[in-house]
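Re: weekly structure request thread

Next one in the queue (366 aa):
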Amino acid sequence: MKIQRDTDRFREIVRGKVRENLRKYINHGEMIGRKGKDLVSIPVPSLDVPHFRYGDNGSGGVGQGDGEAGKQLGPGEGEGEAGAAGDAPGRHVLEVELSLEELAAMMADELELPRIEPKGSANVEQEKAKYDSIRRNGPESLRHFKRTYVQALRRQISTGAYSFRKPRIIPVKEDKRYRSWSQIPSPVANAAVIYMMDVSGSMTDEQKAIVRTEAFWIDTWLKSQYQGVECRYIIHDAVAREVDEHTFYRTRESGGTRISSAYKVAADVVATNFPVSEWNIYFFQFSDGDNWGEDNNTSLKLLQEKLLPACNLFCYGQVESPYGSGEYIRSLEKEFGEEHEKLILSDIDGKEAIYASIRKFLGTGK
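Done, posted below.
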């Protein structure tokens, strides 16, 4: 129908607007809001659904009727007081539903992200059904109608039961054909994503909102690249523990900061749940750079000996805070340099830096 075609075309225009403004949506988190497991609802401001507006015939207006020179034009009828209720329809924000796959594709184009090449040892074979043959029996839901019709036609012609004047094909039990399948090995690459965040008093709600926005886009991209993605969450101040996603983003402590505690828990999570030979492992650490509870050498040694050998990437994002020292990223640069094969460092000084940080983390194709 023409109306449906026009609606589809308009929604394509909206999707084009999403692509144009993707940087803004990424930086400000306007696109975060999952619907079920696969969809996000994206508010698109400043776009109005096309429609006709009709005036009141015969009600007068500017340019109609008698008037005197210099007469002041007042507000027209129907214009109410500020804050007063009205009877006219208001302006609405259009929401467009996009799948996570569409979002990942848009992000890949915008950020020029290379596709990830999983480690060979992470490719695990699993059996997958493929419909590739025909058999004489099976459930009616798998009946092959074309093959059944052809077989019935052949039988009726060969037996002389077919009438060219009154063609009528009636399949019998022996004519029915059904689709069948065979099990074929299918490669599956799995990824484990382990998030670590400092939740001491120096990390405010604003910094956590930045982490949540960035983690959403990281998840979206990695899930488009792997068949299975497992996410784990670790929070720490002076001590660390594994928590669920809800607790990860909403916990705030008041103690000191000891980064090595998070590294120890992360190493235990990998050793217990994710064999390095079978999983592509990603670490994402977010902090304001404080590490008051210990010498940095302790955490740097754990990173060098336990975490970096086990992972595809270790991404450290330092979120600028009015209370944090910001020293840890400089310790990492001094120890490993800025061009380390697996270690990616990003200085996130506010929401506007999220876009560049995601691009830096995911632009390696590892």
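The chain has ten helices and ten strands. The chain has three domains: 1-50+93-112, 126-184, 188-362.
Next request, please.
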